[in-house]
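Supplementary Methods S3. Complex input for the OOB-bound model.
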Amino acid sequence: MSMEGFTPWPTDLEARYQAEGYWSDRLLGDVLRGDPGHVALVAGDDRLTYADLDDRAARTAAGFVRLGLRRGDRVVVQLPNTTGFVVAFLALVRIGAAPVLALPAHRGSEIRYLCELSEARAYICADRDGDFDYRAMARTLPVDHVIVDGDAEEFTTLASVDADPVDVPGPDPSDVGVLLLSGGTTGLPKLIPRTHRDYVYNLEASAEVCGFDRGTVYLVVLPAAHNFALACPGILGVFATGGTVVLSPSGSPDEAFPLMERERVTVCAVVPPIALLWLDAVTWSDEDISSLRLLQVGGAKFAAERAAEVPGVLGCAVQQVFGMAEGLLNYTRLDDPRDLVERTQGRPLSPADEIRVVDEDGKKVAAGEVGELLTRGPYTLRGYYRAPEHNTRSFTPDGYYRTGDLVRQLPSGHLVVEGREKDQINRGGDKISAEELENHLLAHPAVHDAAVVGLPDPVMGERTCAFLIIRAGEKTPGLREIKDFLRTRGVAAYKYPDRLETTTEFPRTPVGKISKKALAARLR
Ligand code: OOB
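Predicted complex, serialized as structure tokens:
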């Protein structure tokens, strides 16, 4: 049963990926492969063995079935790094209902859109995030069921989604198992369908390249719903190789370092701003983090100079990861020479990953030259979910995904990320679609036109600057007012601009498009 709105791989490639062993019959719901008595998950006060977690997942799956959820349904999941996230995810994939993985930071505008686009049957959330009340937002959503991990008020608690395990027909390995969020380059976010077999390959091959095994103790500091922390190799890669997952609410040294010391953590995945924070924090922190063996850094470019500091300062190896929720993953290998580990963003995970580096006309550039990275392979999507028009632009006729990243490839196959062509801001690993933010700004009564650009920043990589043209006779809004306005529109806070500039006209390219390069250059 394939899902409507999902673009399958061509049958010749499907046959090849199966014959060559990239795709198996293994399902996302069967990743708990550790010894029953071994600790699988540590989160807050919870310590669950593989047997405990398997039982929780099976009972919750049965509870979902009793609620009426079934194979092929979509469920928007918005949970922080808690046991509830792991249990809900495993339970949904077991019954073949696809979790749509929202980030805890998303707000009404994003969540409502995700529910509508996916025609979600249910929404699963926490009760609150500081001042923000997810239940109040949930009251406005077009779903049959709202399930709350915590104080549910009039809704269903996640704990009550519980029943004696039942035998239900499971999903097929070719079914869409999970829908990931794209960083986005258009007015509205896109969903990435990942099948059971492509995502299982993603996490198993990643676990192998990263040397995960039963002794791995993996600390989650990024949102568990992000592809990096979930499956590169992430939580699911740990489960598949029998290790232990430790959940931290955040990457703050105050929270992460004590957990590292107490649980003897061996691996962690971070974005560059967290790596920089930790390089600084070890000099004043008292915690013993000597158990750490590998720090994976990705999501945004990590400077070679900083990568070179990691072994000496944090006492562990560093691995650069250049990945995308759309699929393709590049890792520096554990036995790569230092120079490649420090200066490149890794090489493709799979021998079946196909890479093309092309110029503006789509022609291959000369070896070693910079161009846009195109890719296809056994775990890279063939089309965004329910986005036929966008898909004609995002893919070549022969099925390569246009990443929008500018790279150069070394003779070893390693890629160096040199920039970006897509209209997106990478704010410390958080992706912001310029067009999406511009559309929100244009809704402000004083704004005549808006253009959003990324400005270089030593810690975040980039910060977000919004250039506004104000309507004649209107008062120029300040940054505080703009942020309040975006908050009332239900926009996630990481998308708020860091800086506001007003202008009377935008520089244009020869074809009449706003020249964002020229705009950014005005501030230098
Ligand atoms: C990861 O996934 P997404 O979907 O949040 O963002 C993908 C984009 C890439 O297209 C690229 O523009 C950028 O993020 N990016 C990097 C990078 N890693 C990702 N740019 C430079 N250097 C890197 N190391 O960000 C993601 C998914 C899985 C694993 C790791 C990261």
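The longest strand covers residues 447-457. The chain has 16 helices and 27 strands.
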